[in-house]
Write a structure and sequence with these properties.
Layout lengths: L7 H12 L1 E2 L1 H8 L4 H10 L4 E9 L6 E9 L2
Antiparallel strand pairs: 1-3, 2-3
Amino acid sequence: MEKVTTTQKQFVLRHLQEYGSIEPLTALREYGCYRLGAIIFNLRADGYNITTEIMKAKSRITGKPVRFAKYTLIA
């Protein structure tokens, strides 16, 4: 019997299709994905139209401003 495994790329794509967007912290918490940017790069190479928006927030730990990418799948 062959064991079927789901890759991080497949998890991220499914998340984008279900929720429309994903951020690095979500990818890390939900799918153990440390390199979301690399997965997005590969999905774009596969023909998916994904935009990047740089978000700004305040760190809950340090209180200092932080920036992170929010990736959105364009249908």
